[in-house]
């Protein structure tokens, strides 16, 4: 036994313990740290492949993290600013709200109604027509004795941007009866005549007559070019063109003073309605006088020429 162990040591073979048990494994010096590092790297690589991607912070085109979205409260002032700007543009160029302060347009409009006025079409050359309900600036102290409301600061701001009707501006609302070139007249209790054509006016306030039987209510006027003759639907309670014939402009409203046409009653909700042009203003030949006037003038001017020509021919025949 001692001889076998000494021979084994001499040959360099591993010594066995006990009766033929397995020999302990050997590790070569200097290889432990290198092999461990390779193993760890392989494990980390497999872990990265198996883990789901973190998409909470998306990356930009160059690998940079995208900026987080702003909180709503930071964007709110920008949204309000844009909304106010749009409201101001709409009020200036498209539509503006006006409040009805009196009963001069009953029953078409009631005090407290809010109407929307079209301000867009005048930008494209549209002119007021007969039968339209229009808002216009005071043409000459028509509202001289009317009290002017005193709005607070908030009301002024909201009126400026168009979110509520203006209280400071001296504007009026009436119905267009005659336009430039028309002849409008009233005799007795009516009807009103435009270019000799009687108007059928169902919109006149119940119990009123189309023409007021007083001095101001009896008239015959010729509307100058670029002007309008306006009257309220509540004929016996409307200080319209009839009552300002002694004022500058003779009761006529310059077309340039017109803000726009009232197209819709928007408030209160139960009174929502449109404001169309009554059919009586579309009756046949209502424009006959205005259309035939140039022809009549031409005939009057041609008559002397025809007379002179006939006379010259008669003189020539007598000489022969």
What is shown here, in short?
With 320 residues, this protein is of the alpha+beta class. The chain has five helices and twelve strands.
Strand-helix topology:
Layout: H1 2-11, H2 32-50, H3 72-93, E1 95-99, E2 114-118, E3 133-137, H4 153-161, E4 171-179, E5 183-186, E6 193-194, E7 197-198, E8 219-222, E9 227-231, E10 253-254, E11 258-267, E12 273-274, H5 288-319
Antiparallel strand pairs: 1-2, 2-11, 3-4, 3-11, 4-9, 5-6, 5-8, 6-7, 9-10, 11-12
Explain this structure.
The protein is of the alpha+beta class and 320 residues long. Helices cover 29% and strands 17% of the residues. The protein contains 5 helices and 12 strands. The strands form 2 sheets. Strands 1, 2, 3, 4, 9, 10, 11 and 12 form an 8-stranded antiparallel beta sheet that branches. The N and C termini lie far apart (184 Å). Residues 1-39, 45-49 and 289-302 have low confidence and may be disordered.
**Spans where pLDDT lies below 50 across 5 or more residues:** 1-39, 45-49, 289-302
The outline comes out as elongated
Number of strands: 12
CA-based gyration radius: 47 Å
Tell me the span between the first and last alpha carbons: 184 Å
What is the number of helical segments per DSSP (H or I, 4+ residues)? 5
Range of helix content: 25-40%
Overall pLDDT: 75
The percent range for strand residues is: 15-25%
The description of the largest β-sheet is: 8 strands, antiparallel
- Structural class given helices, strands, pairing? alpha+beta
What is the H/E order?
HHHEEEHEEEEEEEEEH
């Amino acid at each position: 036994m001692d001889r076998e162990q000494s021979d084994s040591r001499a040959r360099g073979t591993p010594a066995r313990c006990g009766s033929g048990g397995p020999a302990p494994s050997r590790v070569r010096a200097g290889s432990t740290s290198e092999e461990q590092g390779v193993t760890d790297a392989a494990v980390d690589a497999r872990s990265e492949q198996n883990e789901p991607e973190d998409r909470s912070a998306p990356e930009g085109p160059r690998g940079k993290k995208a900026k987080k979205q702003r909180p709503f409260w930071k964007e709110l002032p920008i949204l309000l600013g844009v909304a106010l700007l749009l409201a101001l543009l709409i009020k200036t160029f498209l539509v503006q709200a006006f409040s009805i302060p009196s009963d001069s347009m009953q029953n078409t409009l009631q005090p407290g109604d809010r109407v929307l006025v079209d301000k867009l079409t005048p930008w494209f050359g549209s002119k007021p027509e007969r039968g339209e309900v229009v808002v216009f600036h005071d043409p000459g102290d028509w509202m001289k004795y009317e009290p002017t409301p005193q709005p607070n600061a908030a009301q002024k701001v909201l009126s400026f941007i168009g979110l509520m009707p203006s209280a400071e501006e001296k504007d009026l609302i009436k119905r267009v009866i005659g336009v430039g070139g028309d002849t409008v007249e009233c005799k007795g209790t009516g009807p009103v005549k435009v270019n000799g054509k009687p108007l059928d006016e169902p919109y006149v306030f119940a119990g009123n007559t189309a023409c007021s039987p007083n001095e101001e209510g009896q008239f015959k006027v010729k509307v100058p070019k670029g002007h309008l003759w306006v009257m309220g639907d509540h004929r016996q309670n409307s200080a319209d063109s009839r009552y300002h014939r002694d004022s500058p402009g003779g009761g006529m409203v310059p077309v340039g003073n017109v803000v726009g046409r009232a197209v819709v009653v928007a408030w209160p909700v139960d009174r929502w309605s449109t404001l169309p042009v009554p059919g009586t203003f579309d009756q046949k030949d209502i424009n006959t006088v205005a259309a035939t006037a140039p022809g009549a003038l031409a005939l009057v001017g041609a008559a002397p020429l025809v007379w002179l020509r006939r006379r010259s021919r008669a003189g020539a025949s007598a000489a022969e």
